[in-house]
């Protein structure tokens, strides 16, 4: 009846024992399977996330993301987005915790740190979308934003494509310059380049920035490869977007969670007449289930509008729990009170 706890020590053990590549591969594989089932309507779509904005002492949001499949348990992630964390507190921009509940009783089964897992599943989801919409022979990756997400975006893409060159840009020059050291394990050369050069030369681009609400696009409109695929990762608030509307209007757009993307993703720029007119294409789950719909667009501009939703976290947590069981890691704690009499809350004490 105890709750399984998976924290820093356990996740470090998983990473060092299983290895980054094998862990990423397992999550990519599980997401592909789970999203395909979603597109086939064999799984439920997670509700759109909810939360509140924080203004003081630092700006940011705290959100909760629930997922429930009958017979598969309930996963709820709480996630905080705080762009000032690295500068002010030496903490990641995104902090999260995952909880797994029994679907019949509501009992808390697992409590796990979600920081590494969130970065992994976000990169893995981009790899899934890119494998559908980008040319398989893509060799040049562009990264706009060189924070923590850039590491797992690039890692996942190198597991899926024959990446030979990486172009990176960040408004903080030290972040862009430091990405090569953080991704040295991939053995891929990285060059700092301005956004217009990245747009013109890349086969695949991932944008993962902390741009503010109402700020200009982080990627310009201009010349690009006809087959360019973009993973737009950073839009997660109403009014916060990364791509020029003109670029979106020319693209085939695949949202991960259509309702959520229209509210706070890149798709919010195409709400109303544009959305009704079909500018926004099938969801990622639908493309996974019916891949021919994706393959038909590989020679044109495509955009994956990634806002992140709880099924992805549910599936990634499944992978973590399987590996934790294989390795025998994780501590247990009696977190929930269990009264001797289910009708008497005071009966936890025999006094």
UniProtKB/TrEMBL annotation:
Q: Which PANTHER family match?
A: KETIMINE REDUCTASE MU-CRYSTALLIN
What InterPro entries would the database entry show?
NAD(P)-bd_dom_sf (IPR036291), ODC_Mu_crystall (IPR003462), ODC_N (IPR023401)
Q: Which domain of life is it from?
A: Bacteria
- The protein's organism comes out as Micromonospora violae
- Return the protein name: Alanine dehydrogenase
What cellular component GO annotations does this protein have? cytoplasm
Q: Which residues cross the membrane?
A: none
In this entry, which stretches build a coiled coil? none
């Amino acid at each position: 009846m105890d709750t399984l706890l998976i924290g820093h020590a356990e996740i470090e053990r998983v990473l060092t024992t299983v290895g980054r590549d094998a862990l990423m591969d397992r999550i990519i594989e599980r997401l592909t399977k789970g999203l395909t089932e979603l597109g086939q309507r064999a799984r439920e779509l997670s509700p759109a996330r909810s939360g509140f904005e924080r203004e003081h002492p630092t700006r940011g949001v705290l959100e909760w993301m629930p997922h429930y499949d009958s017979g598969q348990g309930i996963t709820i992630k709480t996630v905080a987005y705080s762009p000032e964390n690295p500068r002010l507190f030496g903490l990641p921009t995104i902090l999260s915790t995952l909880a797994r509940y029994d679907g019949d009783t509501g009992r808390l089964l697992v409590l796990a740190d979600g920081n590494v897992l969130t970065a992994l599943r976000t990169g893995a989801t981009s790899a899934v979308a890119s494998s559908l919409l980008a040319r398989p022979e893509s060799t040049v990756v562009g990264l706009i934003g060189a924070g923590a997400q850039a590491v797992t975006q690039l890692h996942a893409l190198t597991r899926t494509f024959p990446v030979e060159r990486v172009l990176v840009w960040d408004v903080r020059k030290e972040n862009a310059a430091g990405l090569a050291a953080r991704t040295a394990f991939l053995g891929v050369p990285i060059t700092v380049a301005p956004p217009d050069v990245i747009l013109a030369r890349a086969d695949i681009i991932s944008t993962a920035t902390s741009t503010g609400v109402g700020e200009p696009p982080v990627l310009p409109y201009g010349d690009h490869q006809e087959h360019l695929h973009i993973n737009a990762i950073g839009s997660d608030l109403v009014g916060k977007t990364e791509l020029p509307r003109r670029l979106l209007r020319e693209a085939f757009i695949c949202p991960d969670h259509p309702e959520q993307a229209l509210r706070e993703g890149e798709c919010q720029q195409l709400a109303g007449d544009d959305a009704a007119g079909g500018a926004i294409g099938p969801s990622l789950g639908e493309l996974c289930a019916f891949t021919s719909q994706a393959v038909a667009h590989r020679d044109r501009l495509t955009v994956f509008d990634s806002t992140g939703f709880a099924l992805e976290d549910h599936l990634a947590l499944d992978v973590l729990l399987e590996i934790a069981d294989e390795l025998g890691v994780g501590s247990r704690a009696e977190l929930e009170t269990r009264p001797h009499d289910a009708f008497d809350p005071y009966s936890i004490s025999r006094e």
